[in-house]
From TrEMBL:
<dbReference type="InterPro" id="IPR001360">
    <property type="entry name" value="Glyco_hydro_1"/>
</dbReference>
<dbReference type="InterPro" id="IPR033132">
    <property type="entry name" value="GH_1_N_CS"/>
</dbReference>
<dbReference type="InterPro" id="IPR018120">
    <property type="entry name" value="Glyco_hydro_1_AS"/>
</dbReference>
<dbReference type="InterPro" id="IPR017853">
    <property type="entry name" value="GH"/>
</dbReference>
<comment type="similarity">
    <text>Belongs to the glycosyl hydrolase 1 family.</text>
</comment>
<dbReference type="GO" id="GO:0016787">
    <property type="term" value="F:hydrolase activity"/>
</dbReference>
<protein>
    <submittedName>
        <fullName>Glycoside hydrolase family 1 protein</fullName>
    </submittedName>
</protein>
<keyword id="KW-0378">Hydrolase</keyword>
<feature type="active site" description="Nucleophile">
    <location>
        <position position="382"/>
    </location>
</feature>
<keyword id="KW-0326">Glycosidase</keyword>
<dbReference type="Pfam" id="PF00232">
    <property type="entry name" value="Glyco_hydro_1"/>
</dbReference>
Length: 482
């Protein structure tokens, strides 16, 4: 749709930024915290860039007051952060750790002191290692009860102050990388049957947590965040269009339909049943998923890129794809499922150094698709540019990041004009942080942090980048001055 005049962003729009506990906090074994699966996984040789770990990360655990003060000076309206499960329940279940609970009390209160809305992610991938040791974590149905117990502890402790909750972050990523690509814990390759069962357990954990929150705080806003990369068919050939439908059912709607409708896409389930890998349901699961879906308040979207889809013949590409974790352009591998689809590079779009397409209009496209299919409000819980930032004369001139964010915000404003109900826009990320497999070379933040892959490097000094001051003006003008 195109309009002569824009209505702009809502007056109560939440301009924010985001982080994840493992990527920023550090203090990996302090104040009662025990290891998460990531604390163990990063110690396996070859798993991360230059063997980097989150042991110290950017030391947000000790420097959160400075970080929140910088957020306040920028005028940030909301800060999305995750809670480390193994700080709250060091063994995943059993005894709760009061020092862990107190840290997040302090962080939440520090945000509120500056009128920054805390937006809490319950789970951002850092499963307690103890649960992996006890029963293989997400692979066992027992994870559902332990997760809901953990989530309910958070709701009871913080629900008087936290009104925005994201239950799971990028379920499609942590399960796909964990059980199909072997890139995340537990590092399994092409274990399709377990992969789909793990996802079902995660869906049940999400659903039961939504119901637990609404029982305690009916007015709280809740959803989960999905890593959505909208798909474009490469041509108007019917086989390319059908390949795109197949891709979206298996790679996007498989998750979003469960969050919004409480059911799996019918065609996707028929396909999984034909392969013998469809998830097992326990009695009552279908009803619980549907009830939770009726209480979800928004669709969380982590948006970075789009993809192009082409029909893949039976003798075609057979690959799960492979991410570029070096920052050397052109090293990502093509994904493909013979007889269904393949994912070639889009020649119409530029890419980052990590081979992610840069497609601002894709953000509007994502919002339109979600609005049309689910009619839910949307929280953009992540959007940002990872780049090689250079410190020059004590400053970081990241005009490329400003351009990236400006173009995406312009498209998001058009989505608002289109009738999409966008509640918040959280950039990834606020400070530089550990980029999981990519170390500290891939920087996303508005605030530069002085450190690199060497665990003992740098002063951890915070230095606002040019983009920090630019976003400050964006927030002041509610997106009118870009």
């Amino acid at each position: 749709m195109y309009f002569k005049e824009s209505t702009g962003f809502p007056k109560d729009f939440l301009w924010g930024s985001a982080s994840a506990a493992y990527q920023v906090e550090g203090a990996w074994a302090e104040d009662g915290k025990k290891p998460s699966v990531w604390d163990k996984f990063v110690r396996i040789p070859g798993k991360t860039f230059k063997a980097t770990t989150g042991d110290k990360a950017v030391d947000h655990y000790h420097m959160y007051k400075e970080d929140v003060r910088l957020m306040a000076e920028m005028g940030l309206k909301t800060y999305r952060f995750s809670i480390a499960w193994s700080r709250i329940y060091p063994d995943g279940n059993g005894q709760v750790n009061e020092k862990g609970l107190q840290f997040y009390d302090d962080l939440i209160n520090e945000c509120l002191k500056y009128n920054i809305v805390p937006m809490v992610t319950v789970y951002h991938w850092d499963l307690p290692q103890a649960l992996e040791d006890q029963y293989h974590g997400w692979e066992d149905r027992r994870i559902v009860d332990d997760f809901v117990n953990y989530a309910t502890t958070l709701f009871k402790r913080y629900g008087d102050r936290v009104k925005h909750w994201i239950i799971l972050n990028e379920q499609n990523v942590f399960t796909g990388h964990g059980w199909m690509l072997a890139k995340h814990p537990p590092g399994k390759f092409k274990d399709m049957k377990t992969y789909y069962q793990v996802n079902h357990h995660a869906f049940m954990a999400h659903a039961k947590s939504v119901l637990a929150l609404k029982e305690l705080y009916p007015d709280a806003l809740v959803g989960s965040s999905f890593a959505y990369g909208p798909a474009y068919a490469v041509s108007d050939k019917p086989e390319d269009q059908m390949a795109c439908v197949d891709y979206e059912d298996l790679k996007s709607y498989y998750w979003m339909d469960v969050y919004a409708y409480g059911r799996y896409p019918r065609s996707a389930m028929k396909y999984l049943e034909s392969l013998g890998v469809a998830p097992h349901f326990e009695e009552g699961d279908a009803e619980i998923l549907k009830e939770a879906a009726s209480k979800v308040d928004f669709m969380g979207v982590n948006y970075y890129k789009t993809c192009s889809i082409e029909y893949n013949p039976l003798d075609g590409v057979d690959s799960l794809g492979g991410e570029n974790n070096t920052g050397k352009k052109g090293t990502a591998e093509m994904e493909g499922v013979p007889g269904m689809y393949k994912v070639p590079a889009n020649k119409n779009l530029p890419t980052t150094d990590w081979d992610w397409t840069i497609d601002p209009m894709g953000l509007r496209f994502a919002c339109r698709k979600i609005t049309s299919r689910y009619d839910l409000p949307i929280v953009i819980s992540e959007n940002g540019l990872g780049a090689f930032d250079k410190l020059e004369d004590g400053k970081i001139h990241d005009s490329y990041r400003i351009e990236y964010l400006r173009n995406h915000i312009e498209e998001l404003k058009k989505a608002c004009d289109d009738g999409c109900r966008i509640l918040a826009y959280c950039t990834w990320s606020y400070t530089d942080l550990l980029s999981w497999l990519n170390g500290y070379q891939k920087r996303y933040g508005f605030v530069y942090v002085d450190r690199d892959e060497d665990e003992n490097s740098g002063t951890l000094k915070r230095i606002p980048k040019d983009s920090y001051y630019w976003y400050k003006k964006v927030i002041e003008t509610n997106g009118e001055e870009l």
